[in-house]
Amino acid sequence: MHLYIVHGYAASPNDHWFPWLKNEIEKRGTTVSIINLPAPDAPQPEAWQRTLEREITELNDDTYFVAHSLGCLALLRFLESRSADTKVGGYVLVSGFNALLSILPQLDGFHKPDLDYDKLMQMTSERTVIAARDDTIVPFMLSQELAHFLDARFIAVERGNHFMASDGFTEFPLVLDALGQGN
Known about the structure:
Layout: E1 2-6, H1 18-27, E2 31-35, H2 45-55, E3 63-68, H3 70-80, E4 90-94, H4 117-122, E5 127-132, H5 140-150, E6 153-157, H6 173-178
Parallel strand pairs: 1-2, 1-3, 3-4, 4-5, 5-6
């Protein structure tokens, strides 16, 4: 198994719960790569796509993804661009969205209203979206809508905000559970 972690806007591989998740999954004998996306404070969709294309070296039934926030949309765009017969093990999208965020207009270039949800569903049956009802960055309804369009398992929590370190998330056991790797 190979797990790729895709961070979001204004984040890095060393932020939030990403190092903890990497460590926990590696303890189970799995290879983990946290992709370092360029210019996270001023992200460009094309640069992020090029990085994903360069860094994601395995795409098969043993390839899994965890993405956070803007990383979810970048990952979905990357997966959508693969051939129609591509299969992956699964993906967990944390605070994911595919809509314009009025508080972050600088991210509008990532929005892709015509994502091929059918193709994204065909890649795997293991699709999960996690969201907090009190998220002040990505409205809960946008994550819920993404889960609906992907026909993904939707895990809603009451409190968690945007699941960042500043929200108290330096560990995130719910993601381990969603990957089937919990205790």
